Each structure stands twice: as C-alpha cells, then as structure tokens.
Fold:
Amino acid sequence: MSSTEQSLPHLLRFQIGPVQDFIAQARNTRDLWSGSFLLSWLAATGIRHLRKQRGAEFIFPNPEHQPLLNELFRAKDLKTLLTPSLPNIFVALLREGDARQIAKETADAITREWKNIATAVWDEGRSLGLRDRVKERFDSQVDRHLSITWQATPVTGDDLPAYPRDYRLNSRQLDAVRQTRDFRAWNSGGWQTTDCEKDSLSGREEAVVGGPDWHDSVSERYQRFFKHPNDHLGAVNLIKRVWHQAYLSKKEAFAEPIQKFKIRSTLAIASRGKQTSDDEDVSLTTSEKYLAAIAFDGDSMGKWMSGEFLEEEADLRGHHRAFSTCLSHFATNKVRDIVEKDHAGFLIYAGGDDVVALVPADEALACSRAIREAFRAATAEIQGRDQDKRPIQPDASAGIAIAHYKTPLQDLIRAAQAAEKKAKNNGRSAFSVTLMKRSGEGETWGAKWDSGGLELHEDISAAMSQGHLSGRFPHRVSELLEPYQTVDSHTGRYPNDPHFKAHSIISLEFAHVLDRQNPGKTALPLATDLTRYLQKIGDDPQTCLRDVIGLCKTVVFTRRNRAPSASLTPQD
Structure:
C-alpha cells in the first residue's frame, strides 16, 4: 500500500464463517442456539477490537443497539443478552491508522478468542472423557475450522459519488477474496489407518469423543448434554455442545444467565408453550407432534446497503446509519416477542434482517407473516426506487419446513434454509413451505406475501376449527384437482390443452366441495379468496393446479397440532 493510500480513510469489511452448515449441525435445540451464539460471540470480539481504534465508525451493524456490545443491556434483560443477534458480517469506516494492520489484528483477536474457547473445552478434558491421545486431532480440527476474510478499501473522497463507489468496490473485492481464499490442504503425514468413527453430525471429521464407554465416563456436570450414547463428535461439534458451560459460564456477566437460561426442546415446542427444557422429556398427545423451522431473510440486502435502490444524490453514509439502526431495532426489540409470546416458539437467532426460529406447526405461517410485517414496519423509513423508478421499500422472504418432532433437527433446519432460497428464486417478497412427511415424501407450496394465498389458507383453517367445514375439505379438493394434472397419453388434454380453463375448473370443483362439506351453509369468504389467489397466480394451468393443491395439503399438515374440528358428517 502506498503512503498516499495509507493516509486515506478505509472501509473495512469482515466475514466470519462457516455459518449455515455449522449452525445446522445440531442434535437438539441447545446445539442450534449454541452454534448461533458462538458465531455472535466471535463477531462481538472483532467488533469490540475495532471499536477501540481511533476514528472507527461502524456502518453495519449498529453497535449501540447490540446486547453483547452494550453493558447497560446486561442488567436489564438477560434473555435478550443470550439471544444470538450479531451477523457474521460487519463493516466499519476507519479514518486513522494502518487499515491493513488493524484488520489483521482484528482477525487475530477473533482467532485468539476461538482458540481460548477451544482450550477451555480441552481443559475440561477429564470431565468430558477426553484422552491425551486425541489432542493432536483436536487441535488440528480447531485450527482448520474458522474462516475469517476481510477487505480494506481506501475511500477516495467525501463527496456523494465517491463513497458509494468505494463501498460497492469494497463489497466486490471481499467477494473476490472469498472465492480465491487460501486453504490448508489436509496433511496427516502420510497414509494412516485408524479405527476412529466420523463425527455423527458433520460426517467429515474424525471423532475425538463418542461411544457407550466414553458416555459412561462423562462427569455428572456434562452428562445432561450427551443423551445419545452412540454419538461421536469431532472437536468443533464438541466445542459447540459444551462451550457455554466450559467457557461462557465462567465469565462474570454470564455465570447466572447461563444457569437460568431455559432452552426448550423440540418436544416442548411441538406441545405449544410447555416450558420443558432441552434436558427433560415431555408426554405429547397425538395432536401435538409437529413443529416448523423458519428461516427468514431480507431481500436484496446487499443492494439496499450499497445504495443501488437510492436516488443518485442520496447520502449513502446517512442511509447506512439509518438502515443499521432500523435492523437492530427489529432484531432486538420485535422478533422475540413475535416468536415466543405470540406464537409459542423458540427464537434461535435474530441478527439484523436474518431470523431463525422454531414454532409449532400450526403457527408457522402466521409467525412468518408477523415477522415480515414487523420487518416492513421497522424499515418503513427506508425508501428507494426499482429499475422502473417505482417506489419500493425493503422486504423479505421466508422458508418454512414442517416435520414430525423426531425428524433430525439438522435436516429440518437445512430444509428451511433450502425453502428460503426457493422463495427468493421465485421472485422474492415470498414464502415457501416444505412438508416433510415421515414416509420420506415431500410436498412444497409457496406464494408471494400479497398473493392472497395466506388469507385463503387461514380462512379454510379457521372454518374447519369453527366447525363450518369438515376436516375432509382440503383432502377432497386435492383429490378432485389432482387428476387434472395427469396428461392423457392419447389426447394430451388438460394442462397442455389451450381450451382447458384452469381458473374455471378449479373454482367449480372448489365450490362443489364447499357446498358438500358445509352442511350449515354458513356464508364463508373462501370463493372470493380463491378468485383473488388465482388471479395472482396467473393463467398457466399447471401452476394453478399445483399451487391450489399445495395450499390444501399445507392446510392439512399445519393443522396436525390442533384438536379435531367439530363433528360434522362429511359428504363427497
């Protein structure tokens, strides 16, 4: 770096990984929370180091509204303190000092904290049944795990055009660094044959603990964290499993909160609000066995942060301050109440525009919509224009996966993450639901938030709960519509027939079932809801059939946690 460049202010952008796989490798809700909080803790370490530098101005996130970075928060709300709320990306403007040197020191501080945590877990070795012979393997896996990438970009001027240009360049440069990052090749000193099991959660690393004999040697202090005697864990997943006890609980500010913090099990979440911890068991009725994972994420956040949706004369630096404050307010003040108070769920992570939560199956769609509405309200002051110069504001998409509570949790989380990507690929401002049947089959349904699909889903479900419709209603609609998806091998009729009027056929079949399954002839808004929904879907017959059938199957699946509706005499 030239002396001229070194004297300029610099944008510093950091990214810590891995994220999704690391979090998803979870046996239970405690693992999910622990992985998320560990990443937030490491991000907080880097942010604290940067904040000590003279002339450092944070762009994202806003550190003033982050519980882990705000001492006053600690005495006020211990539960909020233990909610993972820092993103794995943070950006700052550094006005003084050698930016590259400061960036290296910040990365070193994060790495040092990660190794301190690993050391604390190893030092509990006797209690955890660790053996000295696995020390080299443990250290190697710790050294290889963490990925920290950063980019320092000089800011060439304070004028309005210069800062946005340099900000976008900084983002592109970091993307390039991540695509060409260094990696350490695996080198174990030659071919070796071992009898080690692989990590049960990742399937990659050789285990450092595991098996029935090891399980019996674990001390009482840690026994409750290892319920599966046949599990084998590598160093990283072992650290994730116990770091809060081995390391975090020894921090003065966290000793009491960690002991009091209740982490509800998937059984407890499926049973709607019972405060059963992850260490206990709970008896469920047959109607209380399904839960949902929600993966919620803001749409086009990179473009919003880089100012691509703003007017050319807009003040991007002021926009960054306002946007970061809005996102922090949303994550720390809104999301927990929506998930836990309003929808009987458990919040895993809320960092800026990114949310991960577990809720009872029948709360999933309503909870997702409530989070989206809170996000829109929190960012209402952020206005921009799309390519056609139409006014827009930030929006978000959600992926939902619904499954039996005994479904492996990492499969459920990954399905929700995949559903979120599907919602974004379908045009954003949308949701996508994956129904994970115990038979191994899967169903999907998704729609735009404003398509009317949610309203139709809710009105059908409400009519069934109130006894106006038989529980057979969505089944029967699906049964009548599914044959239209089958193309006759001789005539090629229905979906491929230009004379096939999907809207009319679907509406008539729907009305027929509505008449037969509504013995009280109660006036219901379902026909109007359906018409609006079909208009939003479009005219493609295949899409119309798929989406209405998917909606009906989702109604059935999401109601599995509810008591049966009032007795009706179902008719064909």
The longest strand covers residues 290-298. Residues 40 and 140 are 23 Å apart (CA to CA).
